[in-house]
Amino acid sequence: MSFLNDLIGGQGQQAAGGGSLISVAGQLIEKAGGVQGLIAMLQQHGLGGAVQSWVGTGENQPVSGEQLGQALQGGGLGSLLQEAAGRLGVDQGELLGKLSQVLPHAVDHLTPGGQVPAEGQGGGFDLGMLEGLAGKLLGGRA
To answer: Taking the mean position of all CA atoms in its chain, how far away is CA 23?
Structure first.
């Protein structure tokens, strides 16, 4: 049950507090320049096929924590990963392992119907856009 506790930040804490995997996923998306920016970054760093499956309406293709870490670090997000691992009290490898399970669902959730939101459409990325994800995952799709 600890994965689910990590996902929602312990005892149902608000994701905006920075202490959950959902908030870390949100911060990565925000720092990458929104969903479009994250997708482009991951594609540029070797995860194109997997990312396309996350955006599409079919099954999400898995990635390993190591693959995800290489792509995110290659995209300049290494310091954010270190910071997040410290906040959550885990090593970076463990964080990446958990993010490799959460990030596909986050991208899938933010690209309904297989459509990436147009840049500037509805303003920038907002962590509130991921609010329903924890409930969706806890509701049996985990």
So the answer is: 8
Report the predicted TM-score, pTM, of the whole model to 2 decimal places: 0.76
Domains of the chain with bracketed CATH: 2-141 (1.10.10.690)
CA-to-CA dists, residue 128 to 30, 61, 84, 94, 140, angstroms: 12, 25, 19, 25, 21
DSSP 10: T
What residue has token string 């396309």?
Answer: 52
Provide the pLDDT for residue 142.
Answer: 38
- What is the per-residue pLDDT across 91-141, written as a single tens digit (0 to 9) for each? 999 999 999 999 999 898 888 888 887 765 444 555 666 666 665 665 544
Residues 6 or more apart in contact with residue 114 via CB below 8 angstroms: 55, 56, 57
- HSE-up of 138 (CA within 13 Å, CB side)? 16
Helix segments in 17-114, DSSP class H: 21-31, 34-42, 48-55, 65-74, 78-88, 92-110
Q: How far apart are CA 92 and CA 55, in angstroms?
A: 26
